[in-house]
Amino acid sequence: MIDEITMKVHGDKIILAALAEDVTQEDVSTNCVLPGYKKGEAELLCKQDGVIAGLSVFARTFRLLDPAAEIELFAEDGAEVKKGQRLGLVRGDMRAILTGERTALNFLQRMSGIATATRAMVRLLAGSGLRLVDTRKTTPGLRLFEKYAVRAGGGGNHRYNLSDAVLLKDNHIGAAGGVKNAVAAAKRYASFATKVEVEVETTDMAREAAEAGADIIMLDNMTFEDMREAVRIIAGRAIVEISGNVTKENVARLKDIGADVVSCGAITHSAPVLDVSLKNLHAV
Predict the structure, then answer these.
(1) What is the distance between the alpha carbons of residues 207 and 31, in angstroms, rounded to a whole number?
(2) Active site residues
(3) Distances (CA, A) of 260 to 131, 132, 166, 218
(4) pTM over 0.90
(5) For residues 99 and 104, what is the distance between their CA atoms, to the nearest angstrom?
(6) Strand partners, 239
(7) 25: which of 40, 152, 172, 221 lies 20 to 30 Å off by Cα?
(8) Which domains are assigned to the chain?
(9) Neighbour count for residue 259 (Cβ, 10 Å)
């Protein structure tokens, strides 16, 4: 789960922004039927098979609305869950349960969908030595949660944001006047502890990046034959990453290329949600 300190420092802002989007003045539906405090309980149920992720975010949503809320969980992030499985109980002020329900479920469904998609792709790469990582193709404002969900699904994280590492893409290379110039400029500017990655589209660019001393070379949208040739040219001088239109339909074909990492935007930007629901709210 996302640890308590990270949640308070970063996660609470995300959750509170989502709640503020849902409640501009009041939750008029809830206030119609519950003019005052009444303690209640509801069940968190899984409605399809998948991998659960985001339970701490789900729980935190209710605790921000009702600090006395009690959330009992019967699964852990990263666990494979089944349709019909009882995942938890939420007890507390029924007004808070009703107001927070949609926001809490939106986070949990989105994160679980990403974890499920990631787990499926990790399995397709099993035995290859290739490590699956995400990209920055995340929902604006939700990167912390979505990248966490990738880890819960068994994947790894690429750089978190633009401050994490140097990644020289086609437009950076164009602005610098070529691969060699771009890598040299990066090594002059960045800290000695900062990795320098270069995105290349041809075997000639791969050779130039390796000779310039890039730490990581990303093979972007290259043919299988060119990727194999690029790996041969790089010859262990840099970590090799494969990227570009990686999907569950084609990822298994990357297993024998000889690369180290495969990055995939689809596991975050195109993952369908996992259906979960909060049901059977009643007074206790």
Answers:
(1) 66
(2) 137
(3) 6, 9, 18, 10
(4) yes
(5) 10
(6) 216
(7) 40
(8) 4-117+272-283 (3.90.1170.20), 123-269 (3.20.20.70)
(9) 25
